[in-house]
Design goal:
Elements lengths: L1 H13 L2 H4 L4 E11 L2 E12 L3 E10 L3 H4 L2 E12 L2 E13 L2 E10 L2 E8 L11 H4 L5 H15 L4 E6 L4 E14 L9 E7 L2 E5 L5 H4 L5
Antiparallel strand pairs: 1-2, 2-3, 3-4, 4-5, 5-6, 6-7, 8-9, 9-10, 9-11
Helix pairs in contact: 1-5
Length: 220
């Protein structure tokens, strides 16, 4: 989730305010992610935000020394429509491979309720199931960050609480505007100047990992 958050605030920093005010917004972005001076990931995004609908693709993979310890890649695609500033996802697909294991999530939405069509590995191998009550009125993580982008477009701020569910975990993101910062010129970025800053604390609503004992099947 935090990876997506990092990506979207790069979007906010690199797309001029005048462009955000236009509809539809269509952009393709590529950037490298750095931590402690090390190149840790490559990210590509295709963003299509229309007046009535949206489609977003986000792809990222670890690189450099990081890939030695955490080798993986992820491709997420979501399509949906807008109800004012609130996204209504229709279909989310996430396909990745992390630490040598394939991970797939396919979620469709029926009148706002997420319906998991495919989940690999199955949830009972990793976590306790999320109660249906906590799944209601949730959206996927990419749609949540699209909502923040639309909020910035309409209000000039990044405030709000959004609940997400990815087939395994339910979390709540509370975005709080932290003002503006000046990004210094660097060879690692094509953008420098004034950028909106925000904090994105993420609270787990239900994400308990199963213990080894709990993962064992009865009779084993």
């Amino acid at each position: 989730m935090m990876k997506c958050a990092t990506l979207w605030f790069v979007v906010l920093a690199t797309v001029p305010g005048a462009a955000l005010a236009q509809a539809p917004l269509s952009a393709r972005l590529s950037y490298g992610s750095y931590a402690a001076g090390l190149h840790v990931a490559e990210v590509d995004a295709k963003v299509g935000l229309g007046q009535n609908d949206y489609q977003i693709t986000v792809s990222y993979h670890t690189t450099g020394l990081t890939s030695v310890f955490v080798n993986g890649r992820q491709d997420d695609v979501v399509t949906g429509s807008w109800n004012g500033s609130v996204p209504r996802p229709a279909r989310f697909v996430g396909i990745g491979r992390w630490r040598g294991e394939d991970r797939i999530a396919r979620i469709e939405y029926d009148r706002g309720a997420p319906v998991v069509r495919e989940l690999k590995p199955s949830n009972d191998e990793e976590r306790e199931p999320v109660p249906l009550a906590l799944q209601q009125n949730t959206i996927d993580g990419v749609s949540a960050l699209a909502q923040l982008l639309r909020t910035v477009d309409r209000t000039g701020r990044c405030d709000g609480a959004i609940r997400t569910y990815d087939g395994r975990r339910a979390v709540e993101i509370k975005a709080v505007t932290a003002g503006f910062e000046m990004l210094e010129p660097t060879s690692r970025s094509v953008y420098a100047g004034k950028a909106l800053a925000a904090t994105l604390p993420v609270a787990s609503l239900r994400a308990s990992r199963l213990t080894r004992t709990a993962r064992r099947r009865p009779g084993r």
